[in-house]
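Reading is simple: each integer encodes one residue's backbone shape. An example follows:

___
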Amino acid sequence: MEKETNAKEKNRYIEAIGRRKEATARVRLFEASRSSFSINEDRDLENYFSSGDLRSMAVSPLGSVKLPVKFKVTAKIYGGGVSSQAEALRLGLSRGLLKYDPSLRPELKKLGFLTRNPRVKERRKFGLKKARKAAQWSKR
């Protein structure tokens, strides 16, 4: 009976969702002996985000809070562009860390990791070419 309980606890995870523009990241945090990332079940962080800036932005919540525990992170990311996906992953990680340890809230809040960026693309209006761009007007 005791072995079953330990096995169940090993497979337990914390799940959180992060969004930015059209991008969505479903993040799961597992306690592990060493840190690792798996994105969309088959790619690691270095292969998914080719830019170092995007990689550092995505994992910044883990680096900014000092936790003795290491996490295995799995994420399913879809929609949007790579920059939006990195920000969505950052928000998902931050929310997951907050579920793991609520005392991290002031530090994450101060760094701005818990605030969802509300800017999204404006809808197109009828009679216009884009959201605000109109056809060229000529006097004669």
